[in-house]
Amino acid sequence: MSSTLTIFALMDCNNFYASCERAFNPGLRKRPIVVLSNNDGCVIARSHEAKALGIPMGAPAFKFQPLFKERGVAVFSSNFALYGDMSRRVMDTAARFTPDMEIYSIDEAFLRLDRMHGRPLDLARKIRSTILQWTGIPVSIGIGPTKTLAKVANREAKKNPEHGGTFSLVDYPDQDRILAGIEIEDIWGIGRQYGKKLRDFGIGNALQFSRLDKDWVRKRMTVNGMHTLLELQGVLCIPLDQTVATPKSIVCSRTFAKAVTDKDKLAELISGYAARTGERLRGQGCVAGQLQVFVLTDRFRLDKPQYSNAATVSLAIPSSHTPDLIRAARTALEQIFKPGFEYRKAGVMVFGIEKEQGRRLRLFEPPTQERARYKAVMEAMDRINARWGAMTMRVAAEGAEKRWVMRQAHLSPRYTTDWKELPRAGH
Fold first, then answer.
1. Which residues contact 234 (CB under 8 A, 6 or more apart)?
2. Among the listed ranges 168-182, 187-201, 246-260, which one has the minimum average pLDDT value?
3. Residue 135 structural domain
4. Which of 123, 252, 337, 361 is the most exposed place for a label (fewest CB within 10 A)?
5. Which of 22-26, 139-143, 362-366, 388-392 has the lowest mean pLDDT?
6. Are residues 183 and 205 in the same domain?
7. 346 and 217 in a common domain
8. Domain boundary residue among 170, 187, 207?
9. Residues 282 and 356 in one domain
């Protein structure tokens, strides 16, 4: 193997949300598990056992209640405080093995292994066993000379238990067999739309795609499609990206358990959503220049009057300061609220997002000392809420009580982020 060969590993947590629930409840080890969306609406995550029962992604929870009960399915409300913290622990553990890491999603990361000592496959096995020991989360790791081939290898590691959760395509003698087993739509970077077009040309798997002419692919699938082709051929086109991208938008929205008709109650909800977007902006060191509020009635209740609308407000100065965002949100709500309707969903979206540090100051911005005071107040509030629970400290406009919260009838404890919900050792 050439010493200059780049070697990527894709680390992917197995059934991540379900694995987080199992990590603190050994009784769930072999039980089917489903995790539900906001307001316990539909299935957003499944364990391997739940998939084997034929429970589809997006399944409405109420329709599958008889099956859940009959087959002993463990049902959980989405516990994003737990999942986010467990993701951080997994990524921190992986980062101990290599400084070259790209966090791709909440449960995936690309690692570069060619700059590390030892055989890549041995290193991958060590990473996997350490993450399992330290966090309780099982991961699969695929290794390849490109990120796309690492994705392919990861799929093989997950699909075949005999690999023990790790698999390498580097110097693998029968790569064609692996590629032939991957449907065209399942190739990273292809998707359904291009997959359908390729099938019209008789191209149904990754091996067939990898043998196409690059100019033919570029003409029909742009330069990104050509990069996917070359990566499958072992040519590096997609480097490791270790930059933290600024999000284009942040959304906080909820479907209400009960319809809301009162304007003041709706304003409290909207204020709370604006506050949550502010927390997320500050957590990423960002500010936003525009804010949109949207409201809608229940589109499935055709016997009720229907209405939906949205309004956007530009902030004079980009901000993550909660009072600024709430003020803008209430201004937007004033523009679109209509009495006489039963509102079932509302939300706040901020965009025009930029990093706070290093941005160009506007002409009429508050003095530096005043801005520092605003920031200190928000940081103090965020620290209190992080330690004692969401909405422990909040702006008065959000309401005095925690009345407007998601329906989460099956919520597990926040084992790692709330002192009051720490797991208890057996006696």
1. 145, 146, 149
2. 246-260
3. 1-170
4. 361
5. 362-366
6. yes
7. no
8. 170
9. yes
- Express each pLDDT in 315-354 by its tens digit: 888 888 899 999 999 999 999 999 999 999 999 999 888 8
Statement to judge: residues 166 and 18 lie in one domain: yes
Model pTM greater than 0.85?
no
> Within a domain: residue 405?
no
